């Protein structure tokens, strides 16, 4: 049996086994983050071993309680009038960045810029005074990160 | 050369002062108009109730605020512009709410009013209103220094699951749009304030808790000294701006 959530072994797993593994991981311990490898300024490999779903990713991005993205970013979301301008417009993100670059910027942008205001979406360590309900939980789980990465990659 | 530096420094100071903006300046015209008209400003419901409470005898001592202080527009004028202050009898920096409750327990022999209760908000707004248009000028003496430093640390530390500091929004990004609304500079000029989002009047503590909850940080209980520390730091930072209690904010 491959180690659950290892970023180095998913090629050996069938998609079915991965889905099962992901389900086991999330039911057994939601706090367990999957390991990942940074190469240059990117995380080339999917956190789940599978490609995300762009439509689900879009729904996460526009949801103010889940993705929170439009609090700071604007983008091609005509249905949402109240967008932020603290951070770059998301239009054309997929033309500016590779999938792996976007993944690292989602997972923990502070690895590239320690002063960034971009929240670390997939980090639970080195945080201060986290509210009880959010402690030891990433902002988005691995599958959600992959969905958002798939959506952002599609914004050309 | 020295002259150049002095001129440059003065120019910098002038810009820094000119850029200091009350939350009022980030409000829409409609919200400003609501605040400016005492008959339309909903905060005046609390101010009026506060005036009634000021004159009402309470507690085992059977005294009213007015029995000791007299007319509020003389006796507590300016208080909101210089609070929080170090109170030797408390051995700590206290805010106006705590001062009111110390008066209640010590002089009126009455029960302290609960945070965010209408009565405490009413008295605090009534006292605050007496300083309207006065310039904020909070003293940070040796006894208040550690509380000020605590407030500064809290303001500047990243916290919560979102991992943001107060300063990253209110120093570095004020004026930009957060979810379609301008980020103000976080000067507490007008508390208690009527917030349209709340549909009621609320304290600065409540407002600070809102930001902490947005950062997904653990908001300390209302009694926590951390709120006073933040208020002291923010009021010192707001030096020179005018008190506009009761303000109306989005």
From TrEMBL, chain B:
Residues involved in heme c 2 binding: 166, 169-170, 211
Main location per the UniProt record: periplasm
Domain Cytochrome c: 146-238
Coiled-coil annotated spans: none
Free-text cofactor note: Binds 2 heme groups per subunit.
Residues that coordinate or bind substrate: 207
The name this protein goes by in its record: L-cysteine S-thiosulfotransferase subunit SoxA
Organism annotation: Roseiterribacter gracilis
